Amino acid sequence: MPPGDLDPDVRELLDRAAQEPATPVAELTAELVRADDGFDLQREPPRLHAIEDVEAPGPAGPVPVRIYRPAPGPLHLVLFLHGGGFVIGREGYEAPLRELAGAAGCLIAAPEPRLAPEHTFPAAPEDALAVARWLASEAPALGAAPGPFTVAGDSSGGNLAATVTHRLTREGTPPAAQVLIYPMLDATAASPAYEEFASGYGFTTEKSHWYFDRYLPEGIDRADPAVSPLFEPELEGLPPTLIVTAGHDPLRDDGERHAGNLRAAGVEVEMRRYAGTIHGFFQMTGTLRSSLELHRELGAWLRQRRVPTS
User: Which pTM was predicted?
Assistant: First the structure.
């Protein structure tokens, strides 16, 4: 890792992590990865006007949804699907989602789809799509502004966000926009970045395989677009899209290749690479300057895209 390639605070974080013993990937369990919540990398989030827990009907029972409201009155709605490799829950997203709600001035709905390995594919995308359809009908009751909402997600949540956006568009109810933050779009892990950043940058290629192995049933086609949205052949008509990548991330090429595919299909796409940082920086609000920069820029982008309330 040439020092000049990384932001100084990222380098410091990685050097500190290298001094700590790490559990070999072969010995990881869902319980172990869920215990690493990352709270120590986050700053105290801003206070919001209100936070409410509701439930949406799902195919296997109610799906918990947390609503983050930064201000009173009708606000543009953002469905945010959290990352965590399809295995980790949303606990580590409380601070960053409050941060994003304040920066964007939007109403954020964050569901908790069923997690692997207890519930393998297609449980998570089924739950995510059910919540999206429920939001489309219940948005006014939740205090959302009229009109279509935005779909966003990071890492494995970016996989779910891309899937939900595609399905809603094909059903004739396209979102206002989609935001994919270093999305996990290729279960075959075939891009060069998986070799270039295989280890030494926090999130590793080996760990990416581990998460997909927990999520996907044995024998499934990993190039199926329902599993790997990077291979979706029908992208025409999708809404304006923002794709964010990290410069030192095994998943970097997933997002950037997807941006190229969307452009080729005539979709309006903005691609932003945060060159000096690493996977997961959306959550590292108390540690990395790039995290706060990302939240400011996401907030500005969402403010521009939100549906007018009058």
Answer: 0.96
